[in-house]
Amino acid sequence: MFQPDLLKGKRILVTGGGTGLGRSMTHRFLELGANVVICGRREDVLKQTVDELAKETGGEIEAVGCDVRIPDAVEAMMDTIWAKRPLDILVNNAAGQILAQTHKLSTRAIDAVLGIVLHGSAYCTVAAGRRWIDAGLRDRVVMSILTVSSLTGAPFTVPSSMAKAGVLAMTKSLAVEWGPKGIRTCAIVPGPFPTEGAWSRLMPKERGGNEELVKTIPLRRVGEHEELANLAAFLVSDGAAYINGDAVVIDGGKMLQSGGGGASTQAMLDWTDEQWEALRPKRK
Ligand SMILES: CCCCCCCCC/C=C/C(=O)SCCNC(=O)CCNC(=O)[C@H](O)C(C)(C)COP(=O)(O)OP(=O)(O)OC[C@H]1O[C@@H](n2cnc3c(N)ncnc32)[C@H](O)[C@@H]1OP(=O)(O)O
Ligand SMILES: NC(=O)C1=CN([C@@H]2O[C@H](COP(=O)(O)OP(=O)(O)OC[C@H]3O[C@@H](n4cnc5c(N)ncnc54)[C@H](OP(=O)(O)O)[C@@H]3O)[C@@H](O)[C@H]2O)C=CC1
């Protein structure tokens, strides 16, 4: 589908690249010749992914352990990355999600999600952007992974929706502020793509399986990781050099069918408090 050297010479950081969609994007970037750094909190997960993807693609991949909620950890990660070679591309993919009634959320729960998605994306973006701007480096890209709920809102996933909407505002704002400096910003808005991380949190058995979900999607199926990875590869490549400040939806038409407002979680509006309590993680 692409020239095999589409991303040759590009150094890319994928936050949360050890699992799920971040791993799948990393796989595709490596196949297309990029040099990829992945980060996350679980170093054993990162190491396994590095070993597997190096073997599968023969590409250059490395990992840095980092909790993106901690500003000093983000700065230290960027210093480690820059010591070898500056980044060309940042992909803000790390995220946290909680499915719960909003009025029952503790402040720690709210902060956990906002910290990863909103603050983490801002810390990583500013840390990379400052280094690019100070060094006069141009032709750089920041791409963030959002959710449909960042555009429409959605019940029961409020901290994530708020945080991703904030990252969209960052994407649009920096498109204008950093565009003249040769840094462009863009985003992907995915519909449902099965991953262990998302499904374990959003698709508890109480909700029924994927069968109910696909009825809400015009194409009557969930997304394939390869489809999202190909879109990501295009958007960060020089082929998309005139795309700045936009967010591309890849959801099989789900947002249009539902008319917005988080149709898949709306089905839970009639749940009882007991059903919600059953979902809540038990204190250890
Ligand atoms: C729809 C189908 C597809 C339909 C369409 C598909 C749309 C998909 C959109 C997907 C978006 C995604 O981001 S999917 C990505 C999913 N991946 C992830 O979430 C990976 C990372 N997540 C995590 O690490 C955790 O889940 C998270 C809780 C966010 C952070 O973990 P931490 O270890 O930092 O924090 P913890 O100490 O465990 O928890 C912090 C507080 O949050 C509370 N908390 C944790 N889980 C809770 C819960 N379920 N309900 C209430 N409260 C909860 C705890 O009790 C703590 O509060 P106190 O008790 O007060 O201390
Ligand atoms: N799957 C789907 O259907 C959809 C996914 N998305 C978005 O796609 C992206 C990937 O999600 P998905 O692959 O499904 O889920 P995953 O749970 O697999 O991915 C989340 C990744 O983020 C990392 N992460 C979480 N918190 C931190 C932190 N504080 N610091 C550094 N890394 C962190 C996790 O690693 P670790 O725990 O080791 O830190 C994990 O690798 C997210 O932005 C999500 O919101 C959007 C819409 C739909």
UniProtKB/TrEMBL annotation:
Q: Tell me which Gene Ontology terms the entry assigns under biological process.
A: fatty acid biosynthetic process
One Pfam match, by short name?
Answer: adh_short_C2
Which is an annotated GO molecular function term of this record?
trans-2-enoyl-CoA reductase (NADPH) activity
Indicate whether Signal appears among the record's keywords: no
Signal sequence coordinates: none
Q: Where does it live in the cell?
A: Peroxisome
Keywords, ordered alphabetically? Fatty acid biosynthesis, Fatty acid metabolism, Lipid biosynthesis, Lipid metabolism, NADP, Oxidoreductase, Peroxisome, Phosphoprotein
Q: Does the keyword Cell inner membrane apply?
A: no
Q: Which reaction does it catalyse?
A: (2E)-dodecenoyl-CoA + NADPH + H(+) = dodecanoyl-CoA + NADP(+); (2E)-decenoyl-CoA + NADPH + H(+) = decanoyl-CoA + NADP(+); (2E)-octenoyl-CoA + NADPH + H(+) = octanoyl-CoA + NADP(+); (2E)-hexenoyl-CoA + NADPH + H(+) = hexanoyl-CoA + NADP(+)
Annotated pathway, please? Lipid metabolism
Q: What is its main location?
A: other
Q: What is its EC number?
A: 1.3.1.38
InterPro entries recorded? NAD(P)-bd_dom_sf, Peroxisomal_t2-enoyl-CoA_red, SDR_fam
Function field: Participates in chain elongation of fatty acids. Catalyzes the reduction of trans-2-enoyl-CoAs of varying chain lengths from 6:1 to 16:1, having maximum activity with 10:1 CoA. Has no 2,4-dienoyl-CoA reductase activity.
Query: Subunit composition?
Result: Interacts with PEX5, probably required to target it into peroxisomes.
Recorded protein name is Peroxisomal trans-2-enoyl-CoA reductase
What is the organism field in this record?
Answer: Enhydrobacter aerosaccus
